[in-house]
Amino acid sequence: MKTITAIFRFSCYWGYKDLSYEDFALGLRSALQKDKSALDAGRLQKFTGPQLRELLKWPRPLPLEDERIRLLHEVGCELEISFGGKASNLVESCGNSAVKLVTLIARHFPGQGFGQSKDIASITIFADYIVPAVLHHLGVLRYGFSVASIIKNDNEIGSGSEEEVELRVCSIYAVEKMRELIKIKTGKQALSVELDLWLWSYGIQCHSLQHHRTLSIYY
Fold first, then answer.
1. pTM of the model
2. What is the pLDDT of residue 122?
3. What burial class does residue 29 get, using C-beta atoms within 10 Å of its C-beta: 0-12 exposed, 13-18 middle, 19+ buried?
4. For the chain, first and last CA: distance in Å?
5. Which keywords has UniProt assigned to this entry (predicted)?
6. 69, 83, 128, 169: least CB-packed within 10 angstroms?
């Protein structure tokens, strides 16, 4: 159920070595293997913090736990009201269109799916904390003195702050310009999601990479 995993994925894991995307994914997988109804809409609406921790095998309160629980309740309620309680119905209703899927998610869950999308080229990158750091490492982005100092000293950048928004927006712009250059030089059309995956994969293997630190449920 990708709609659900997104709630857990969009989180910066700095400061928690055993709280990575892989840990979350394994927790969800294990829960569903033991109980296929573990993430049913009705149960999502009743989730508590301790239950979420037990599902993920996490020993203490999660970062921004109350907000995560609120979103789980929201997802469960909206799936039940609008999509018969199934995330698969949400995905099927988009007709293999990535743009329609994003629109539906934004409309019904104001707070990704499976299958082939015929217009995936219309979707840009996921501007998290890894991609901006990789772009800077490769010399594509240059930080201003203030932002560079904050990142170097491992200080937190506020969620929704001017600095955070600029980092993410500039990353999106940079990758779209990269797409244009690839098209000009090779004649081939690279997808933003492909570049995103390459940059992200490169970043998680570069252990010396310094990224910005923002406490957020969105990445």
1. 0.56
2. 57
3. exposed
4. 18
5. Hydrolase
6. 169
User: Which residues have a Cβ under 8 Å from the Cβ of 160 and sit 6 or more positions away?
Assistant: none
Helix ranges (H only) for 83-208 are: 87-92, 98-108, 130-137, 145-152, 162-186, 192-205
Q: Tokens 């772009």 appear where?
A: 135
Cα gap 13→15, rounded to integer Å: 6
- 217 with 64: CB under 8 angstroms? yes
Question: CA torsion, points 29, 92, 216, 206, in degrees to nearest 10?
Answer: 60
Q: Which amino acid is at 104?
A: L
User: If the chain, 219 residues long, is cut into consecutive pieces of 10 residues, what is the mean pLDDT of each piece?
Assistant: 44 54 77 85 91 83 85 89 86 82 74 44 75 94 95 92 93 92 90 86 86 83
Q: How far is CA 95 from CA 108, 116, 133, 182, in A?
A: 17, 10, 35, 30
Sequence-distant (≥ 6) Cβ neighbours of residue 139 within 8 angstroms: none
Burial class (CB in 10 A: 0-12, 13-18, 19+), 213: middle
Which residues lie below 8 Å from residue 64, measured CB to CB, with a gap of 6+?
11, 215, 216, 217
Distance (Å, rounded) from C-alpha 157 to C-alpha 164?
6
